[in-house]
């Protein structure tokens, strides 16, 4: 269930990609209540109702944060969290009726970032979501060198290199590559890329994005002909190949 379109939103003077929250909660009423509250707070929201569907969605899409119930059909929340942490460090907030200290400690040790006990206040949930997203963004930006396979992008010097051989990128190519590296699980539509990188309204000019992505791919291919970096997700857009 999708509550907001995945489009860039304007905050202050710049364009930012809208944060995407996945809610995995089997109670339809609670799931809907959370989704509406977070959509009202300006987030793009998707919902799943079982552990297996939640894990499938995580593997197929990129999310900025996950709200996770523990008592889920088919695959419990703690099982999902344990498996999730083998391939992703996306922030996870547990929402559960279990309020025993031991349970909270066990889940935090498994890799949860926060824990909210039912019943909860929607304002507190929104505040916790923003706090965890802010911390996640800070950690991401503190790592000035972004790495993927043999590719390294230095945010301080604005340079990119493959196997320590510097790439000669245009400003737009650099920003496209940086966006994909910072959100490596996300699929970016042409509109997402254009409005985030060019900071202008997207009017349906596919050629501009196609040309820049093609040139970027060619430069990466020349640097390492044996590796693939940018994947086209047909009908959707672009992302980095999943490791």
Please give the alpha-carbon distance between the first and last residues.
27 Å
- Beta-strand percentage? 15-25%
**Unreliable runs:** 1-16
> Helix/strand-derived class?
alpha/beta
Q: Specify the helix fraction band.
A: 40-55%
Number of helices: 8
DSSP strand tally: 13
- Average pLDDT works out at 86
Element pattern in H and E: EEEHEHEHEHEHEEEEHHHEE
Major sheet size, sense and barrel closure: 5 strands, parallel
Strands ordered across the widest β-sheet? 4-3-5-6-7
**Gross geometry:** elongated
Rg over alpha carbons = 19 Å
Write the layout of secondary structure elements.
Layout (H helix, E strand, L loop, with lengths): L8 E3 L2 E3 L3 E5 L3 H13 L3 E5 L2 H10 L4 E4 L8 H8 L7 E5 L4 H10 L3 E4 L4 H21 L2 E4 L2 E4 L4 E4 L2 E2 L4 H12 L7 H8 L8 H18 L6 E4 L3 E4 L3
Parallel strand pairs: 3-4, 3-5, 5-6, 6-7
Antiparallel strand pairs: 1-2, 8-9, 9-10, 10-11, 12-13
Helix pairs in contact: 1-5, 2-3, 6-8
Please provide a written account of the structure.
This protein has 243 residues and is an alpha/beta fold. It is built from eight helices and 13 strands. The protein has helices at 28-40, 51-60, 77-84, 101-110, 122-142, 171-182, 190-197, 206-223, and strands at 9-11, 14-16, 20-24, 44-48, 65-68, 92-96, 114-117, 145-148, 151-154, 159-162, 165-166, 230-233, 237-240. The strands form four sheets. Strands 4-3-5-6-7 form a five-stranded parallel sheet, sandwiched between helices. Strands 8-9-10-11 form a four-stranded antiparallel sheet, with helices on one face. Strand 5, helix 3 and strand 6 form a beta-alpha-beta unit. The longest helix is centred in the middle third of the chain and has 21 residues, at 122-142. It is elongated, with a radius of gyration of 19 Å.
């Amino acid at each position: 269930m999708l509550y907001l379109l995945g489009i860039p939103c304007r905050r202050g003077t710049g364009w930012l990609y809208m944060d995407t929250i996945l809610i995995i909660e089997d109670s339809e009423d609670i799931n809907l209540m959370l989704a509406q509250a977070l959509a009202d707070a300006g987030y793009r929201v998707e919902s799943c109702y079982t552990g297996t569907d939640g894990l499938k969605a995580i593997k197929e899409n990129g999310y900025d944060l996950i709200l996770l119930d523990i008592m889920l059909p088919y695959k419990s929340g703690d099982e999902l969290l344990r498996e999730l942490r083998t391939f992703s460090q996306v922030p996870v907030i547990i929402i559960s009726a279990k309020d025993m200290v031991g349970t909270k400690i066990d889940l935090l040790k498994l890799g949860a970032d926060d824990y909210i006990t039912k019943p909860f206040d929607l304002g507190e949930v929104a505040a916790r979501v923003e706090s965890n997203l802010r911390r996640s963004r800070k950690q991401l930006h503190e790592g000035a060198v972004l790495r993927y396979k043999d590719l390294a992008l230095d945010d301080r010097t604005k340079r990119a290199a493959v196997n320590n051989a510097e790439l000669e990128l245009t400003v737009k190519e650099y920003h496209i590559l940086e966006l994909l590296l910072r959100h490596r699980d996300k699929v970016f539509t042409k509109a997402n890329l254009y409005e985030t990188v060019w900071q202008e309204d997207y009017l349906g000019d596919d050629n501009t994005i196609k040309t820049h992505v093609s040139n970027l791919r060619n430069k990466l291919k020349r640097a390492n002909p044996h590796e693939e970096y940018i994947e086209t997700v047909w009908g959707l857009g672009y992302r980095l190949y999943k490791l």
